[in-house]
C-alpha cells in the first residue's frame, strides 16, 4: 500500500480531475451521455439527455449503463489517488441526477486501485476477432467477481446459451435494419470521420468478422483491418441484475467498467454486445437464458486478443463540454 500523496490539492480540483478521468469511460455509440458538475465539495453526475439515442434507447437503459461506467471510472480515480469516496446514487429519487460524490477522507492506495486506474488509458473496445486460445477460467471468474463486487452479476454462457445470444442478437439486428428511425440514428452516430463523438470508420471493421454471435452493423465503410480468425475461442457473458430500472442500470454500468478494466489488467479484450438488450424480444430471450433470475443489462464477448497492437482509441469530447466547475 502507498500513502496518499494528493492531500494538499483543493477538493474541487480533485473532483474535477476525477470527472475528467471519467470521460475515458465507454458509452453506447460513444455518445458520452454524462455531465459532471463540481459544486464545492460535491461532484454530481447527471444524465445528458441531449445525447440520448432516442430511437435505439428510448428508455435510457444504455444511457444509464454508460453513465455508470463513467461513475465507476471517477470512483476508481479517487481510490487510485488515495481518496475514500462517499457515493449517493439517485439522491433526489428518480430524475437526471444519477449520483453525488463526496470525499470522505484519505485512505491508503492499494496496488489493485492503482493498477486499475492505470488501465483506464489502455481500455478500448476491441471489435477484431480474438485469438484461437480459450480464455482461462480463473480469468473469467475474476471478471464475474469484479461485476459482483459492484452489485451486478456476470453469467458465463455455455454453448447452448451462446446460441440463444446469437439468435437474440440476429433477431434484434433484423428489427433494427427494418426501422428507418434507428437507421437514421445509426448514421448520425457511426461511420465517417469523427473527432469528438460517435464511432469513426477506424474502429469499425472493414468487413464482417467471422463470429458465432453477429457483430453490430454500424453505418459507413469501416476501415479497421481484421484478421481471418473465427471467434470460436471467445467466451461470452451476460451482465445482469435484480432490477430493470435506472438504479439497476447504473450499477450495471459500474459493474461493466469494473469487469472491463479487470479484463484489460489480465490482458484480455472485451466487446460489449447490447443490441439484443435494446429490443423487448431480445430481452425476453435473454431473460429465459437467465432462467428468469434477473434482468439482462448487456452481453460481453471476452477474448484473448489476436493482435499485438492495442485497439484503436475512439475520440472524446473536450472536458470543457462534460465537466463544469461552479
Ligand atoms: C452500454 C454500452 C453498449 C455498447 N454496445 C456496443 C455494441 O453493441 N457493439 C459494439 O461494438 N460496441 C458497443 N459498445 C462499445 C462502445 O461503442 C464504445 O465504448 C465507445 O465507442 C467508446 O469506445 P472505447 O470503448 O474504445 O473507448 C457499448 C458500450 C456501452 C457502454
Automatic annotation (TrEMBL):
Region (Disordered): 192-226, 307-326
InterPro entries: Nitroreductase-like (IPR000415), Nitroreductase/BluB (IPR050627)
Protein origin, superkingdom: Bacteria
Comp. bias regions, Polar residues: 209-226
NCBIfam families according to UniProt: Rv3131_FMN_oxido
This protein's name: Acg family FMN-binding oxidoreductase
Organism: Hamadaea flava
Lineage: Bacteria, Bacillati, Actinomycetota, Actinomycetes, Micromonosporales
Amino acid at each position: 500500500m502507498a500513502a496518499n500523496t494528493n492531500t494538499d490539492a483543493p477538493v474541487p480540483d480533485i473532483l474535477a480531475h476525477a470527472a475528467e478521468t471519467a470521460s475515458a469511460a465507454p458509452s453506447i455509440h460513444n455518445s458520452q451521455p454524462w455531465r459532471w458538475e463540481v459544486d464545492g465539495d460535491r461532484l454530481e453526475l447527471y444524465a445528458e439527455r441531449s445525447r440520448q439515442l432516442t430511437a435505439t434507447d428510448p428508455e435510457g437503459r444504455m444511457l444509464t449503463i454508460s453513465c455508470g461506467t463513467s461513475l465507476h471510472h471517477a470512483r476508481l480515480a479517487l481510490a487510485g489517488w488515495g481518496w475514500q469516496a462517499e457515493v449517493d446514487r439517485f439522491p433526489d429519487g428518480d430524475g437526471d441526477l444519477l449520483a453525488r460524490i463526496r470525499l470522505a477522507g484519505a485512505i491508503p492506495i492499494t496496488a489493485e486501485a492503482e493498477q486499475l486506474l492505470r488501465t483506464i488509458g489502455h481500455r478500448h473496445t476491441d471489435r477484431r476477432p480474438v485469438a484461437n486460445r480459450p480464455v482461462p477460467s480463473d480469468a473469467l471468474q475474476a471478471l464475474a467477481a469484479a461485476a459482483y463486487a459492484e452489485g451486478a452479476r456476470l453469467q458465463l454462457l455455455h454453448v447452448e446459451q451462446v446460441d440463444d445470444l446469437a439468435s437474440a442478437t440476429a433477431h434484434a439486428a433484423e428489427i433494427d435494419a427494418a426501422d428507418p428511425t434507428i437507421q437514421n440514428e445509426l448514421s448520425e452516430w457511426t461511420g465517417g470521420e469523427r473527432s469528438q463523438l460517435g464511432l469513426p470508420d477506424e474502429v469499425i471493421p472493414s468487413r464482417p468478422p467471422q463470429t458465432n454471435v453477429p457483430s453490430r452493423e454500424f453505418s459507413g465503410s469501416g476501415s479497421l483491418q481484421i484478421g481471418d480468425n473465427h471467434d470460436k475461442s471467445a467466451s461470452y457473458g451476460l451482465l445482469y441484475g435484480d432490477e430493470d430500472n435506472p438504479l439497476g442500470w447504473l450499477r450495471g454500468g459500474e459493474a461493466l467498467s469494473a469487469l472491463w478494466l479487470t479484463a484489460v489488467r489480465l490482458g484480455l479484450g472485451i466487446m460489449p454486445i447490447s443490441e439484443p438488450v435494446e429490443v423487448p424480444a431480445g430481452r425476453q430471450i435473454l431473460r429465459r437464458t437467465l432462467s428468469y433470475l434477473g434482468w439482462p443489462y448487456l452481453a460481453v464477448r471476452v477474448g484473448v486478443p489476436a493482435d499485438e497492437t492495442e485497439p484503436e482509441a475512439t475520440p472524446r469530447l473536450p472536458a470543457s463540454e462534460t465537466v463544469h466547475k461552479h
